[in-house]
Design a protein that fits this description.
The structure is a single chain. The protein is an alpha/beta fold. Helices cover 35% and strands 18% of the residues. The protein has a seven-stranded parallel β-sheet, sandwiched between helices. The chain has a six-stranded parallel β-sheet with strand order 3-2-1-6-7-8. It has a five-stranded parallel β-sheet with strand order 10-9-11-12-13. Helix 1 (19-27) packs antiparallel against helix 2. The longest helix is centred in the C-terminal third of the chain and has 21 residues, at 518-538. It is elongated and about 95 Å long. The mean pLDDT is 93.
Length: 629
Amino acid sequence: MISPVFIFDFDSTLVRIETLEALADLALKDAPDAAERKARIAALTDDAMNGRIGFGEALKQRLDLLALRREHVEALTDRILDEATVSIRRNVDFFQRNAERIYILSGGFREVIAPLAERLGLAADHVLANDLIYDDEGRVTGVDTANPLSRENGKPEVIRALNLEGPVVMVGDGWTDAEVKLNGAADRFYAFTEIVSRPKVVEAADAVAASLDEVLYAEGVAGRWSYPRNRIRMLLLENVHPAAVERLEEAGYTVETMKGALDEDDLIEAIKGVHVLGIRSKTNVSRRVLDAADRLMAVAAFCIGTNQVDLDAAADKGVAVFNAPYSNTRSVVELAIGMMIVLMRDVADKSREMHKGRWNKSATGSREVRGKTLGIVGYGAIGSQLSVLAENLGMRVLFYDLSERLALGNARRMRSLDALLAEADVVTMHVDGRKDNTAIIGADQFAKMKPGALFLNLSRGHVVDVDAMAAALKSGRLGGAAVDVFPEEPRTNADPFDSPLVGLDKTILTPHIGGSTEEAQEAIAEFAAERLLGYLNRGDTTFCVNLPNVQLAEVTRAHRLLHIHRNQPGVLAELNRALSDAGLNILGQHLKTDERTGYVITDVDRDYDREALTALKQLPGTIRFRRLH
């Protein structure tokens, strides 16, 4: 089978601009009638691209309007690499590997196109374009009219003159590109719509391609059968930071966002056809939701915890779950420090009185944090960093954790929670959201604390009995409290909030904002988005919380086969037997397992029959199989 020859248009296909309109911005910068002339140039471009005016006539009229000089052309040439279309930049390797069977065909200008062609690895004689003519003073006087591309129906004529062997595939956005197929000079025409979609061109096309990935997928170039990225749908809930959206869209994926959380029934309806789900803390991804997800590959929790996701059910479905365990650590720690100081100085109540017109200047009950004992329950990323900052404030630090943790600075580990409670002037919670931590602080624990001690909960709402906390505050056993998390929280800002703690003196309530700083949310967005891209693009499961962790390099000159299976004997042997029967040459292989799941990554040569992979999907124990180019 002969590989296709690809012919690419330049403007609004390989680059996101129309060359003449970009040149107009440069040439007409100081012209008093610039706006009028630019509008006319844009209209002529649109007329030519939609077939309402002959290309040659449109080119002549636009050059007359431009008053173009050599320095204008050179200025655009200098920055043309920055204008490359997103999916083109993403697929430079395709051009470099297949350069001998790729041409650029454009009514634009050779000297503007040349730098990008060189970057893509194309030879100079594979750039078919117009040549500008200059006078002695560097003014553009026109184009070489002997070149067929300077006139109507020039593109089909140029292609025929090449005497190409094999099917010819034309990719472009304009009517002159459609004419190539209509005049019999190409076997297939793809209307390229990543930058602009023209109805008349789309109607004339064999297929519509929203990105280069679509073209390569349809043509099966060199075994390139990865699912086009723009067909992979991502649904991000709960107002995920725009940095994540930008990064994922830049990588070529289709992203939909929603501001609020969804309840189970609404999520079941919304998740149909979704490949990647992004959530924060208020959306619960239950087994029932996962059972309804027909295409889900991954869930990203744009927060620290993942207790809102049924991790076992996700693993059973081969759905990878990622979070951002460290990205908002500093923000939570700073809020805890601030809450301690505000409570120690009774700032909140004094501020409330000031707003009511009461001036109550007094040192009674107002204390420094220096010299006080801080008891940290949970000495993970947040607890340990809080330990360091608290010591820098002059505090004595105790901590309690079920896991063995390295004490930082002069912090001292306590062997029991009761021992910590008895000594601490301030107790702060930084445990995870596992069910075993439900109500670990209740009436008995508050009774064992020092009278007048302060209490902070910035971890999870269910780890504290709030009724018992309210009673301890009312009785004076607690000297004050700061709470950022609650057993039941509104799904959106429009929903009402209620708690036994509402209205109590010396009690600061905040709406789960521990990690809600601009810096933290951007860091979370970037971290979680990169983890998703690592998994989708190369199968990397680093920081995945429910599948075996495997760190992988990019796929280079190979195809990667990803096989998630139940951890049972014999799967790897059966997998390799199936690969051998299919005649696939293994270039590299990784296997990682946990108690319930196995993950095999196999890199193979690119040239093979895709039907040979059918057996891999049917191996006993298979949960999920996918391939990457």
